[in-house]
TrEMBL record:
SMART domains: PDZ, TSPc. Residues 1-25 form the signal peptide. The keyword Metal-binding does not apply. It comes from Crenobacter cavernae. Pfam families: CtpB_N-like, PDZ_2, Peptidase_S41. This is S41 family peptidase. PROSITE patterns: PDZ. Keywords: Hydrolase, Protease, Serine protease, Signal. The keyword Protease applies. Residues 396-457 are annotated as: Disordered. Residues 405-449 have a biased composition (Basic and acidic residues). Residues 85-153 form the PDZ domain.
Length: 473
């Protein structure tokens, strides 16, 4: 046991010494090695190897130790084994092998939110509201969403069988699908009404900026080259790639405007990103923003945010708010104001490490605080209990403090619009009852100002801006 302890301590000390020497070369000394702590680690390692109830591989113990070391730093740093590292890259690139189904959880079951257009799922006839009962021979009830996703994803060309329960069908439906390369677009759009467009960004991926540019061009073309206002929906957008956030902001801001700056311990972590191609393009890419209509820089704009708007979403919202380019509508954002760098490792895995804080153009830190909308509008479908259950950055264990010393939401003057209270005693008409009965058949992702109170208020604000603009002229 002493030999194991000495060998392990020696290996760890050697690794730490290598790091220390590299750091010294960068003039950033790590300080003396914590030999007592390394001896304790080696002793625990040896005890587990000798006395744990079942044999444990050295690889598993070391991997778990690395995970614990990194995850204990803050909620967003993580160790990625080779499989997790591959999945992360697929997620940011928006391309993977699968069926093309957006799913959610409902009462322990996996429900189809919507099939993605032109995918095996849509072509086979999978519908919104379907409940997935089995994936191949595995019952779905009790599986986590991530486990269900893993079972449906796989190598393109391979087959998977889904057993579906559908409303008004007496027997389960069985679909055998062939996996294909799924290319997801993070940007969805439509005309809400004549002259008023809607764009939703679900996540900031590699191609988000060009997808947004294509959406704007299509909206202008469909509305005879003229728009009077635009709603940019960032609700429940968890963030993603930083250059995507800079690109989206650059669509609406004057060229050269400061979008975000970052501060960290190493020089590479200190950046000032502006509305210029150098800040949002990757090497060799063509600038997708050069063909956009010139008036997109002044088009009346409302940005929708909520508690689920985090990280890159908050960068966009903060930049547009600081430059007084848009009216922010919704509820307080998540409050994730830190930057994670993906650092590859020699084992084909990597680490996601927090390396900097980011700040809005006016110097605000969003960390553990979030962005306060200009107009507070609660989601009319959520109860007080629902809102209380929503988690923000400040609720997470080991979250970083606000570098400006402001962990609470800023006291800024805002307007508040309350959703109408439902009169439970009011008689319900036939249409309303039918609408409630058919709720499971409607794609909840389809934007509808009549049923989405926040979106309805955003559209009203655009119309008021249009009226005021005419009066000014």
């Amino acid at each position: 046991m002493k030999k194991i302890a000495l060998i392990t301590a020696g290996a760890l000390a050697g690794g730490a010494l290598t790091i220390s020497l590299q750091a010294l070369a960068d003039k950033d000394t790590l300080g003396p090695l914590p030999l007592n702590e390394l001896r304790t680690f080696a002793e625990v390692f040896g005890r587990i190897k000798q006395e744990y109830v079942e044999p444990v591989e050295d690889k598993k113990l070391i991997n778990e130790a690395i995970k614990g070391m990194i995850s204990g730093l803050d909620p967003h740093s993580d160790y990625l084994d080779p499989e997790a590292f591959k999945e992360l890259k697929e997620g940011t690139q928006g391309e993977f092998g699968g069926l093309g189904i957006e799913i959610g959880a409902e009462d322990g079951a996996v429900k189809v939110i919507a099939p993605i257009e032109d995918t095996p799922a849509q072509k086979a006839g999978i519908q919104s509201g379907d409940l997935i009962v089995k994936i191949d021979e595995t019952p779905v009830r009790g599986l986590s969403l991530s486990d269900a996703v893993k079972k449906m994803r796989g190598k393109p060309g391979t087959k998977v069988t889904l057993t579906i329960a559908r409303k008004q069908e007496t027997k389960p439906l069985v679909f055998t699908l062939t996996r294909a390369v799924i290319k997801t677009k993070s940007v969805k759009f439509k005309m809400l009404e004549p002259d008023f467009g809607y764009i939703r960004i679900t996540q900031f991926q590699e191609h988000t900026t060009e997808n947004l540019a294509q959406a704007i061009e299509t909206l202008y073309r469909d509305n005879k080259q003229s728009l009077k206002g635009l709603v940019l929906d960032l609700r429940d957008d968890p963030g993603g790639l930083l250059n995507g956030a800079v690109g989206v902001s650059s669509v609406f801001l004057p060229k050269g405007s400061l979008v975000v700056y970052t501060e960290g311990r190493v020089e590479d972590a200190k950046m000032r990103l502006t509305a210029t191609p150098q800040s949002y393009l990757r090497g060799g890419e063509k600038d997708p923003l050069v063909q956009l209509p010139a008036d997109i820089k002044s088009l009346p704009l409302v940005v929708l945010v909520n508690t689920g708007s985090a990280s890159a979403s908050e960068i966009v919202a903060g930049a547009l708010q600081d430059h007084k380019r848009a009216v922010l509508v919704g509820t307080q954002t998540f409050g994730k104001g830190s930057v994670q760098s993906i650092l590859p490792l020699g084992n084909a895995g990597g680490i996601k490490l927090t390396t900097a804080h980011y700040f809005t153009p006016s110097g605000r830190s969003i960390q553990a605080k979030g962005i306060t909308p200009d107009v507070i509008v609660e989601d009319g479908k959520l109860t007080a209990a629902d809102n209380a259950m929503r988690v923000r950055e400040a609720d997470l264990e080991n979250h970083l403090g606000n570098p400006n010393g402001e962990d609470k939401a800023p006291a800024r003057p805002v307007r508040r619009i309350e959703p109408p209270k439902e009169d439970k005693n009011a008689p319900k008409g036939k249409d309303e009852k039918d609408e409630k009965d058919d709720k499971s058949d409607v794609n909840p992702r389809d934007p509808n100002p009549k049923t989405d109170f926040q979106l309805g208020q955003a559209l009203n604000i655009l119309k008021v801006q249009q009226i005021l603009s005419k009066k000014t002229h």
